[in-house]
Every structure is written in structure tokens, then in C-alpha cells.
Design goal:
The protein contains nine helices and no strands. α1 runs antiparallel to α6, α2 runs parallel beside α6 and α5 packs antiparallel against α6. The chain is elongated, with a radius of gyration of 17 Å.
Length: 153
Amino acid sequence: MTITQHAGITSVVCAGLYFASHSWSMAIACFVAGVLIDLDHFLDYLVNFSPRLGFRHFFDCFENQVFDRIIVFLHAWEWVVLAIVIAAVTLSDVTIGIAAGMLLHMTLDQVFNRHNACGYFLLFRLANRFDAKRFHGSAEYRRRLKLLRTRES
């Protein structure tokens, strides 16, 4: 999903959270966690395309390039579980909002992105040395390569 899609859907969920809880801190924490989790894509960009860096190049890479390594350190079900446990223990509006935002983001990515079912487990990516082919799954990786070659022709 794109960051725009995440921001739109997360905004609606945050509005619902605010109306249900009357807590601005919960709603804001949900939005921040639900959208800014995508900052980890910058690390993948650096790992795969450094030293050529640029704002336009960054977005072009996610549209038109195939990555060799997928790290997305914050995109991990392990962090979601940890956030939920912390929220359950603290019962803080902020930690509940963070857990809700992370859960929403990860659920949307898991459902709508074409990746290996285990791809969003950090331990799976680590065990596979962050290999993009394992993250995407062979069929999706081949589809991306074919699409890239078609665009280059």
C-alpha cells in the first residue's frame, strides 16, 4: 500500500478511536504509528541503491525497481505483539494508540501487498538474510522482474 492509502485509512480509524475514547493522545498515537512505520523503507532504499540518493529516485525505485534486500525493520508482527502486550500492561492511551496503529498498518500490508505469508515476520527475513525473493515469494519476485524488463524495453 502507498503512504497516501495508509494515511487515508488510518485517519478514518483514528477518528473512530477518538469518538469511541474521547482521547486525542490515543488518536494521534495511532496515526503516527500507523503511518510513520513506513519510514523504515528509507533503510531499504539506502541498502539497495546507495550511493545514488534523491527524493524523486526514492519514489521511482519503489515503483519501477526490484530490490535485492528487503529489511523493513519496523514492518514486523513481532513488534505488533510487543506493542499489544505493552498496551495491555500499561493501559495508557498512547500505548493503546501505538498498538492500534501498528496493528492496522501491518494488517493492511499483509492483506493488500503481494508478499510471502511469512514475509512480515522479522525473524523470517533475518533467517533468509533479508533476501527480497524470499520476502516477495518466487512468483511475485518473477512478476516484478518481468515488469521491470518490460519497462526497460
